[in-house]
Every structure is written in structure tokens, then in C-alpha cells.
Amino acid sequence: MTTTAATALTRPLDVRARVDAVVRTGVGGVLWLGLLLVTYWWVADGGVQDLGGWADGLTSIGRISALWSSVLLLAQVTLMARVPLLEHAFGQDRLAHIHRIVGFVSFDLMLVHVVLITWGYAAGRIGSVPATFWSLSVDYPGMLLAVAGTACLVMVVVTSVKLARRKLRYESWHLMHLYAYLGVGLALPHQLWTGAQFLNRPAATVFWWTAWAVAAGAVLVWRVGMPVVRNLRHGLRVVAVVPEAPQVLSVWVTGRRLELLRAEAGQFFTWRFLGRHGWTRANPYSLSAAPDGRHLRITVEVVGDGSASIAALKPGTRVLVEGPFGRLSARSRSHRKVALVGAGVGVVPLRALAEGLSYGPGEAVLVHRYRDAPLFREELETLSRERGLRIVALPGRRRASSSWLGSGVTPLDDARALLGLVPDLADRDVFVCGPTGWSDSFTRAATAAGLPPDQLHVETFGW
Question: CA–CA distance from 393 to each of 3, 365, 373, 439 (Å)?
Fold first, then answer.
């Protein structure tokens, strides 16, 4: 039994899951409190009374939309700052989803602010809006910086739309997404120099400076400082690159005191392999073996420029990482029994979980859908013999684009077929990894089969 599994045996299964649930509730409460506070100050400063006139009403609504937008903008920066408390409670997939929603709402409110404030300053005359916008941009302190910041945010939002993301490589999208930090930073002078709602009362001033300091501090500490410290401490290097299947490779990495990374089976890191073309761009890869304090292993499907260059890695190549990330781990577990469900290379983190989780014979089942040949066949068979892991293979193409099942399954609907494979589904934590569309299909089937939502833990390949 691995060290990770032995440790899990001594820990009540639901302690960390319950703590994380409390944190999620608290984070939501803090965000709503921030929105309520700025709304209260807007009302106290006459925001409602100003709605009585056309031009004043436009300006007043423009101000409250700016206040809400600013709160949400700082929230989305903090959500993706790699803060461990948030990472543990939400996981990267869920944080990215919330970040996306909050980002689009914040951006829409910012556009409302720009349009209505300009319209209001133009005395409510639509024909005067262009000239007023030009005057505000060049004459008011900090406005040119705010315009530049808005342009950065527009670029980030446009490239975040699904249609645009399909046409971009992950590495290019990630690089452009970093301009969001520049956009947020350029907005600050405008808010402080011309935003009366930010500075006209001590409580508001303390609130806004604290919010900005927390967001900036989180980014500097967890996205910049900690990765530097961890990589200097551990000195990671490639040990070997091993073919697992056609177009699938495993990379073994070693370093100093790897137990201090506190990585768990099922989690992922973002990786930079020095010396290769495009090394500055990070790629997210899951661990495919339970961490043992001496080595880390990732398994990669060669599908793009970043993954293709991995085949040329040499032993001794320096490695930079950020992480570990994700809740597809023992941390989210609340039941003794587990089901691990994956499609294709989605079995990678599940293979690590099958090794790292604690369970007795029959308490863990691995359901693997694959097209040609399964990954880690021998390793999984060993786990089956030694630990009692039950393996359910689902070979072949998907029987329909809306189904998570392979073509060889009996003609039952997805939910009933799932219950046929895992009759006690509702008594298990279910860990799922695979392409987005497939994972969505499985989620629908699991929900229809009676699985409580808090027992379903999903990680997808989407970005």
C-alpha cells in the first residue's frame, strides 16, 4: 500500500470535504457582502434620488454598474490566483467555470458603465455621446489608462468566447489571457482619481484598498512567489520518457524532497520543460501514478505542439511546475466506496487514484471507455489482483454523440446501463475524467441514475 493510501486510512473520509463545503459557502457570502456594501454606499450617496432625472439617472446607473463590475473584477482575479484555500475548496475546473461567469458579468457591467456614464455626461443627448467620450478620455485623470485597460479586457473576453477558443492553441490563449492583469491594473488610477464612490467616505476607501491589496497580494504570492520558491527548492528534472501506447508517452520526474509538494493522486500540475521550443508556455498534465515522495509521473497524449515536443525530452532536462491543482483526489471523498469513470486518456488521473486511494476488495470500480486499446492494462490488472479493484472495460466508439457508452453495450438508456454496471452507484463517490462532451453525457446519466450531485467529481480536458 502506498503512503498516500495508508494516510487516508487514518483520516475520517469526510472531514476535508466538509471543511471545503464551509469555505465555498463563506466565499459566496463574502462576494455578496461586497456587492451589498457598495450598493449601500451608492444609495447613501444619493444614487436612488438621482434616478429621477434622465441625465442624472443615466449617470447614477452607470456608477452602480461600475461598482458592481469592480467587485466582480477583483473577485475573478482572486479566484484564479491559485490561492490554496480556494483551490482546495473548489478545484481548478470549478474555479475556471465560476471565473468565466463572473468575468463575463463583470465585463458586461463595465460596458454598461462606459455607455451610461458617457451618455449621462452628454446630458442625455445620444448625438453628443462620441464627442463626450473623446473629451472624457483625454481630459479626465486616468481615463486614457482606463481606455487602454478596457481594450486589454476586450481582447481577453473576445478570445474567451467558445468560437474563438476553438481556433486558438491553448498556449496562445493562455498567453493572451494574461493581459487581463494589465487591464485590471490600468483601471485602478481612473477609479482612484475620478471615482467619488471610492474615496468619499473612510469605510469605502478602506474597503477598496483592502480589496485591491488582497487581489494583488494573492497574485504576487501564489502565482509568482510560491512557484519560484517551490521550483528552487525541488530542482525537478526528467528521469525518463516511456512510450505507453501509440501517441501516448509517460514522463518520469524526480527532485529534492518531493513530499513537500503535498501532491495527491488524481491532481495535476502545469509543466514547463526547459530547453525545448515554447518552454515558456505551461501545459496542464495530470499525475498518472500516486506520488511516492521520490518521483512524479505524468502521461501525455501527443495532440499539439507542446505535447509533441515531449518525445524529444532527454534525461536531466530541468522542469518547472505550478501546482498541485484539482479536487479529483481523496480530498473530495465522502464515501468508502468509489467509482472511477474515464474515457480514453481520461484514465490517467484515475489510474493514479486507483493506486493512491484507500479501499478494500470490491469497494472500488474502474469503468474505462476506450476506442482501440486500454492504457495501463498491466498496471490496472496488478491493482485488481493485489487490491481488489474491479475493472469494467467499454471498448469501441461511442454509440451516439449524446451517450457516454461504447457501441458494444446492451441497448439500454444511459442511466439504466450505468446502474447495470455499478448497481450501488448512489453509495459511492464517483470520479470522472474525459472530454467535455463525454463528461457532460455521463453527468446526465449519473444524475438520472440517482447519484447525489455532491458525490460527483468531474475533471474535463476542456479549457
Answer: 28, 11, 10, 17
Pairing of the two strands 319-325 and 295-301: unpaired
For the domain that residue 272 is a member of, what is the CATH number? 2.40.30.10
Residues 99 and 207 in one domain: yes
Q: Smallest Cα–Cα separation from 391: which of 408, 407, 374, 404?
A: 374
Do 284 and 185 fall into the same domain? no
DSSP string, 332-352: G--SSEEEEEEEGGGHHHHHH
pLDDT digits (tens, 9 = 90+) for 275-297: 777 677 788 899 999 999 999 99
Structural domain boundaries, residue 154: 14-229
**d(C-alpha 395, C-alpha 376), whole Å:** 14
pLDDT digits (tens, 9 = 90+) for 206-218: 898 899 899 999 9
So what's the pLDDT on residue 100?
A: 84
State the CB neighbour count (10 A cutoff) for residue 348.
27
Low-confidence ranges of the chain (pLDDT < 70): 1-14, 141-142, 144, 157, 159-180, 182-183, 188-189, 192-199, 278, 304-308, 407-410, 461-463
DSSP structure class, residue 376: T
Residues 136 and 163 reside in one and the same domain:
yes
Joined grid coordinates for residue 120:
449621462
2 occurs within a structural domain? no
Same domain, 306 and 374: no
Cell numbers at 242, concatenated: 516511456
State the total domains in the chain: 3
Boundary residue ending a domain (300, 325, 350): 325
Contact 394, 405 (CB under 8 A): yes
Specify the length of the chain in residues: 463
Phi then psi for 10, rounded to 5 degrees?
-90, 0
225 and 240 fall within a common domain = no
What are the distances in angstroms from CA 116 to CA 126, 134, 330?
10, 15, 49
Co-location of 241 and 318 in the same domain: yes
The H or E element containing residue 244 is strand 237-245
* pTM, entire model: 0.82
Supply 455's cell numbers.
458525490
Alpha-carbon separation of residue 201 from 61, 64, 116, 208 (angstroms) = 20, 16, 24, 11
